[in-house]
């Protein structure tokens, strides 16, 4: 009887112990922090350089009054006209050139008559010398006529060169278009008062179907940007609208920027030119444009930026390994608003805690949601 009681007591104690151990185990399990995990994900990483610039016509010709050409006799085009390369635009009248051309023509005729007369005298003396070769007086006259004839030929050549120069100047009185485009401006007031308005253009021609953007980049950015890099264009004037472009020119020579302005102020800046690729850009020349240049685009392994924690210059993540937290130092590169490129430290199989908190520590037991 006593033995039965002992066995019963022992059995009850064992049961109670198992219950206590189970409760402790459950309490321990319930105390584990639940975490959400993520893994490396391939993402297209884009590196860009931001600057700004001014919208301009890709091709334009501006014609100013040229006093040495004379007076503007006629403007041959109207504002809004479409012109081709070589189309006459302006004709000058220059009476002084006309007078000089007439004088040159008379001088040239006189010089040619003189040459002809000297040639005939030369021929006569040549005939006389054939019959009297030893006549010293005839020989002296021959040499003198020959010299005069050579000088007359030189005078004719000089007058001929002068004639060609005058003709070039007269041809320049007709100003022609150097490009194909649209006549954007015709300033008739220059014709009326040209002496007082020399700095104002008479005619301005441009190609409205092709725009460029001129701006500046820093010396650091000039090492990353290349001709042909794609560009995204936008303007504060037209929100929520973008256009495409391409880097078409980067200057090899810097330019000193005196005051704050394009791309962040003074210092050494390099001129850059962007060709607008999009058609029908609804902005006018002179508008300020925001320029975003893509310098690199590649596929990379990324993690959410919230999974990274920093300790000084060291970046690390927390990996869940067999229910325990393990700290891993990682290499990082380009970051966006939501993700960051991981270069080393974790593999595609690692389960990385998505959101870092101060409560998560190395070696802690955790459970995965």
TrEMBL record:
Residues 92-176 form a coiled coil. Keywords: Coiled coil. It is found in: Cell envelope. SUPFAM superfamilies: HlyD-like secretion proteins. Its main location: other. Residues 61-206 form the YknX-like barrel-sandwich hybrid domain. Residues 300-367 form the YknX-like C-terminal permuted SH3-like domain. It comes from the Bacteria. InterPro entries: Beta-barrel_YknX, BSH_YknX-like, HH_YknX-like, RND_pump_MFP, UPF0194_transport, YknX-like_C. Residues 96-172 form the YknX-like alpha-helical hairpin domain. GO terms for molecular function: transmembrane transporter activity. GO terms for cellular component: cell envelope; membrane. Residues 211-293 form the YknX-like beta-barrel domain. Belongs to the membrane fusion protein (MFP) (TC 8.A.1) family. This is Hypothetical conserved protein.
């Amino acid at each position: 009887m006593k033995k039965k009681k002992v066995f019963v007591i022992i059995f009850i104690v064992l049961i109670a112990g198992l219950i206590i151990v189970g409760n402790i185990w459950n309490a321990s399990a319930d105390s584990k922090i639940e975490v959400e995990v993520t893994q490396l994900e391939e993402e297209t990483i884009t590196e860009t350089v931001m600057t700004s610039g001014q919208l301009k016509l890709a091709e334009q010709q501006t014609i100013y009054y040229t006093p040495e050409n004379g007076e503007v006799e006629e403007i041959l085009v109207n504002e809004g006209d479409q012109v081709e390369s070589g189309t006459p635009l302006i004709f000058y009248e220059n009476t002084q050139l006309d007078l000089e051309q007439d004088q040159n023509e008379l001088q040239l005729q006189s010089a040619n008559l003189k040459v002809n007369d000297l040639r005939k005298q030369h021929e006569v003396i040549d005939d006389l010398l054939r019959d009297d070769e030893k006549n010293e007086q005839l020989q002296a006259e021959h040499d003198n006529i020959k010299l005069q004839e050579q000088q007359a030929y030189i005078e004719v050549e000089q007058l001929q060169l002068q004639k060609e120069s005058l003709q070039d100047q007269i041809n320049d009185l007709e100003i022609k278009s150097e490009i194909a485009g649209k006549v954007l401006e015709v300033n008739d007031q220059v014709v009326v008062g040209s002496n007082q308005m020399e700095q104002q253009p008479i005619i301005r021609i441009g190609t409205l179907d092709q725009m460029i953007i001129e701006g500046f980049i820093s010396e650091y950015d000039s090492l990353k940007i290349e001709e042909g890099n794609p560009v995204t264009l936008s303007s504060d004037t037209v929100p929520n609208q973008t256009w495409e472009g391409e880097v078409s020119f980067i200057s090899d020579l810097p330019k000193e920027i005196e005051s704050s302005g394009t791309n962040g102020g003074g210092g050494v800046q390099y001129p850059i030119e962007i060709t607008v690729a999009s058609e029908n850009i609804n902005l006018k020349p002179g508008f300020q444009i925001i320029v975003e240049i893509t310098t690199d685009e590649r596929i990379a392994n990324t993690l959410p930026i919230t999974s990274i924690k920093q300790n000084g210059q060291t970046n690390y993540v927390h990996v869940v390994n067999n229910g325990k937290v393990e700290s891993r130092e990682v290499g990082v590169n380009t970051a966006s608003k939501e993700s960051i490129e991981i270069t080393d430290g974790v593999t595609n199989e690692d389960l990385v805690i998505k959101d870092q908190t101060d409560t998560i520590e190395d070696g802690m037991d955790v459970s995965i949601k």
